[in-house]
Design goal:
The chain is of the alpha/beta class and about 300 residues long. It has three domains: about 1-190, Rossmann fold, CATH 3.40.50.200; about 190-230; about 235-295, no CATH class. The chain is built from nine helices and ten strands. Helix 7 (about 235-250) runs parallel beside helix 9. Mean pLDDT is about 75; it is low at about 200-215 and about 230-285.
Length: about 300
């Protein structure tokens, strides 16, 4: 599965050799035998995995299938399968605000393993954090950004509510920090003849066929709109709208607004020279429109 994921998203070639990936874990642990069996079955070399204890914690697998061990093992397996040449340093700490912050701080300033990327799959709604913890955590994350360490954090599993039952929209921290790369989930499938289909789960909606149909309807509507735009001159369309606004507003025309709109749209649609042609045509039509309104 990780190798298919790398192929679907066109990951760059390379195995991460010479790099270190830091993973933050708030409890649980991994069994070396499980990792060996997994990478052997996948057919890729097993990466070097190092456990780093923070605040008197360490690699302590509970043996509970429903506990944190599955999260720990999954994090290592996904990262290791895609970058088997990298060293994976797993920072274990207590499941508390202080432990969480200390573990990230240890990873950022680790002069032994020197991770260039830190992965965090833990977090919670901003509303459950104290202002002091948010400030302290953001200070550590800011230091990571200054040092060139990329911090990736999961954006949550519960849609726009982030698991809060008040009916409002909430964001997950530390993914919401301005110093963090927030990572959300997608459901991507490979179809016939190399075609790819991607579904981004809707806010507050469970991932599944309904969501995928919703995404396909949106994609179909976008394609239809693009086709309609392609069959008409964007500049002329915008200028006709400007002319109608002039009539409805008693002869007051907002000079330049139509030209800017056409140029922007042509640029957004791109295509280099075609965009320039649309922009030039817009300028000429605007000049004619101005002459018409002024009686020249």
């Amino acid at each position: 599965m990780p190798l298919q994921l790398a192929s679907l998203y066109n990951f760059l070639a390379g195995d991460g050799k010479g790099e270190c990936i830091g993973i933050i874990e708030l409890g649980g642990g991994y069994q070396a035998s499980d990792l060996t069996a997994y990478f052997s079955g996948l057919g890729v070399p097993a990466p070097k995995v190092v456990a780093v204890g923070v605040d008197q914690s360490g690699n302590q697998p509970s043996g509970d299938p429903g506990g944190p061990d599955g999260e720990v093992t999954l994090d290592i397996e996904i990262a290791g399968a895609i970058a088997p040449g990298a060293t994976i340093a797993v920072y274990f700490t207590k499941n508390s605000d202080a432990g969480f912050i200390d573990a990230v701080n240890r990873a950022v300033h680790d002069t032994t393993h020197k991770p260039s990327v830190i992965s965090i799959s833990w977090g919670g709604p901003e509303t459950v954090w104290t202002p002091q913890s948010l400030q302290a955590f953001n200070s550590v994350l800011q230091a990571a950004a200054v040092m060139g360490v990329t911090v990736c954090a999961a954006s949550g599993d519960s849609g726009s509510t982030d698991g809060v039952g008040d009916g409002g929209d909430h964001v997950d921290f530390p993914a919401s920090s301005p110093y963090v790369l927030a990572c959300g989930g997608t459901n991507r499938r490979r179809r016939g003849r190399g075609r790819r289909e991607q579904c981004v789960p809707c806010a507050g909606m469970a991932e599944g066929p309904l969501c995928c149909r919703h995404a396909r309807r949106q994609d179909g509507a976008r394609r239809a709109r693009r086709a309609r735009r392609g069959r008409r001159c964007i500049a002329g369309h915008r200028l006709r709208r400007a002319d109608r606004r002039h009539e409805h507003r008693g002869g007051r025309h907002e000079r330049g607004s139509a030209t800017v709109g056409c140029a922007h749209c042509a640029h957004q649609r791109g295509k280099g020279a075609a965009g320039g042609l649309h922009q030039s045509e817009a300028v000429r039509r605007e000049e004619r429109l101005q002459r018409h309104h002024t009686g020249r």
